[in-house]
């Protein structure tokens, strides 16, 4: 498992290098990267979620999805508690440490290591990540905002319910329980799966563009960034994996949750920091710093998971 994760991370690092070079050579601009990120959030990741539900319905699979949904909540609660202990009044740091890049990075890694079964379990985690980000997370970043005027009205029930990932999860679940997920016209199903396949390269190219916009000197000299990365990539995953090791559920489900919680800082910390008037530049640095170190630390955490979690 750790070797598969390492190989996939190296491939994704090459995608990130492509994004880095495209930005440095002016082929992709900052505005272009925002367009790519929007395409990911509104089309590619929702298509990946829909694609994961295009499977035969059974009461057993429904039961397993329910269990993964509960474990997704448990994993995010562990992250919330630990990040609050380490970063009591550093609200951007707390958000960054709490929420992993379970969508951008988690989806391709779970797909490579576990397959479509893992993606099916991962949906529950992604739903909770988005719900908690839009409630608890946005509240943190409002506290970090430079002024009430900049923070604005970033959170509403309407925005939560129109979140593309939440919509995709609801639609996918309806397709699954109705049995329609496996009887869609081939043109439509092939389109969804084709768009879903864009997730890994496009997500990492966007992260490479983010990296190109930040100072490499600051990335490697800031003690604050190292603290966030350590909590995000080591402390929270280790605690979650330890808890998972006692759960009477399947190996694949445990490893899916472990991969999701071991990913680097989620890119949404930068997006939501802009909305709330928090330190957007620093938020971007937490993403790129943790992404760089995840190349080494994620495989190590998967080795740790392999010791505690057995098939």
Q: Which CATH C-level class is it?
A: Mainly Alpha
Uncertain residue segments: 147-153
Counting structural domains, the number is 1
Give the mean pLDDT: 86
- CATH architecture title: Up-down Bundle
Overview of the structural elements:
It is a single chain. The protein has 311 residues and is mainly α. It has one domain (2-308): Na+/H+ antiporter like fold. Helices cover 79% and strands 0% of the residues. The protein is built from 16 helices and no strands. Helix 1 packs across helix 11 (199-212) and helix 3 runs parallel beside helix 6 (116-144). The longest helix has 29 residues, at 116-144. It is globular, with a radius of gyration of 18 Å.
Features:
mainly alpha, 311 residues, Na+/H+ antiporter like fold
How is this fold's topology laid out?
Elements: H1 2-24, H2 30-52, H3 59-86, H4 91-98, H5 106-113, H6 116-144, H7 148-151, H8 157-161, H9 164-178, H10 186-196, H11 199-212, H12 216-221, H13 223-244, H14 251-262, H15 268-276, H16 280-308
Helix pairs in contact: 1-5, 1-11, 1-16, 2-9, 2-10, 2-11, 3-4, 3-6, 3-13, 4-6, 4-13, 5-6, 5-14, 6-14, 11-16, 13-14, 13-16, 14-16, 15-16
Summarize the structure.
The chain is mostly helical. The protein has 16 helices and no strands.
